[in-house]
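Subgroup meeting minutes
Present: P.N., E.W., G.H.
Scribe: E.W.

1. P.N. recapped why we're keeping a running log of single-chain structure predictions: easier to compare across weeks, and new members can see raw inputs and outputs side by side.
2. G.H. added today's entry (458 aa).
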Amino acid sequence: MSTVAGLILAAGKGTRMKSELPKVLHEVCGTPMVSLALEALKEAGLSHVTVVIGHGGDKVQEELGDAVSFAWQHEQKGTGHAVRMAQEALLGHCDHVVVIPGDTPLLSGEAISQLLQAHLASGAAASVLTCEVAEPKGYGRIVREGGAFARIVEEKDASPEVKALKEVNSGVYAFHTAKLFAALPRVGAANAQGEEYLTDVLALLLQDGDRVEALPFDDADILMGVNDRWSLAEADALLRRKILRRLADSGVTIVDPNSTYISPQVKIGPDTIIEPQTYITGQSVIGRNCHIGPSTRIKRSVIGDGTYVYFSHVADAELGDGVKVGPFAHLRPGSQLGAGTKIGNFVEVKNAQLGPKVSANHLSYIGDATVGAGTNIGAGTITCNYDGFQKHRTTIGENVFVGSNSTLVAPVELGNGSFVAAGSVITKNVQGDALAFGRARQEVKEGWAVQWRAKFKK
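Output recorded in log:
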């Protein structure tokens, strides 16, 4: 069985982006473009991937980590030169290689799979994915002779007759690895760009008597490359519509597609409703029969069935079934909410584990804490977790009642079934079923207000 690797070309400067960030790290639907390229290759079954990096390569390495190997192109001399830089990583390690750009965020795993399957079945030395477009300006044209692939001509090198052709190069290729690297040293730079074109390899292979296939794909959206901020926004809009349509087809209600933003990695169960102005990004998973939004942001979080989150921010959190969050709640990284827990308005939770049916409905901060099942956190309760140097934990047992406006100074523990009187400052552990209060005793001076007002009368 043939072994196949993937190669992502991600070394370009992207000068038209006018950014210090490498072009391939700009996000489309909440995901860096180079990560979308990697996901497309993985969807097509390619687990061994090399990324050619150059401008800002250190940042690309940081983003992708150990998921891929890297090859450096220190001078940008064209796509052919970029592929040559990956020779050590590929030649002798795989029979075939799929080459894709790092800045075409709408390229799908389906398109790559179709190309690769046809390439392997045909026995071709090279195959290129093509599309028919009404406005081919800017794309390399596919020239056929007698219906068979003849060559690719770049826009700047094309004659008027060639420019009239509608079939264009997608920039996605499959190559027999050994034949690819045998042809690359013969690629010259005698063209309008003064660069080594990868497309010239196809013509060289034909000259050698090898078979080259041009395989049409019916979705021309995959062609869309990102070269500036406006095309970045256009790509985002196109991909977003595809994501929302896929979710709608799976049983998710999208109330307003024009104001809903969901990353491609997100998974949402059927009968969930997504309200307007909702952003869901990263590897988020949302269960069935949930109600999310309006005006909610969820990042890299797992949300159980039947959960309601609205007017709130949730990041790196886990919510069980039947949880209610909002309005105006903030769940920060490390938040874990048990089934049936309620987090209300202006409540912030950070690095805290709350058991089932915990209630914190108003104006509280729960940080670096463990809260047992059935506990009530009164309005205005604060866990004081930071002493200026270190964070400390608060441990609250099951079925505890914490009165309003209480301050729990960590490290401190409240036993199961204990009560904390409203307005208390708790600095010592409280045993189970005990009542704790720590506040000044109330004193009433009758008639004092009359005397005070008289003092200031003229």
